[in-house]
Amino acid sequence: MTQVLPGVRFLTSGPISDADRAAAEAAVRRALDSAAEQVTSVQVTLSIVPGGDLPRPALAQAIVEVDGVRMRAQAAGPTITEAIGLLRDRLQVRTAYLRAG
């Protein structure tokens, strides 16, 4: 029997759309799919800093508790879509390391 991930809690700052939130939730769920039975909490922060003077104004961060261990992954990018993609990749790597150890 496969256990479902717990609900994803969000913190947002800046012009984050519902589509951005949905994309982030899908990316995090995909990254954690192999560890779903051990995930007890997921919090995602999405932020876009206003103004055009930063090279990577978009930030995506996830704090996840897996089998009693809290892990954090974050990524910045020129767009929130790119930051979410990078976050997914980093979260997959951290989850793999945790499961291997």
Characterization of this structure:
With 101 residues, the chain is of the alpha+beta class. The chain has a single domain, classed as Ribosome hibernation promotion factor-like (Double Stranded RNA Binding Domain, 2-Layer Sandwich), CATH 3.30.160.100. Helix content is 36%, strand content 34%. The protein contains two helices and four strands. It has helices spanning 18-32, 80-100, and strands at 8-13, 39-48, 58-66, 69-77. A four-stranded mixed β-sheet has the order 1-2-3-4. Strand 1 (8-13), helix 1 (18-32) and strand 2 form a beta-alpha-beta unit. Helix 1 packs parallel to helix 2. The longest helix is centred in the last third of the chain and has 21 residues, at 80-100. The model has no long low-confidence stretch (mean pLDDT 90).
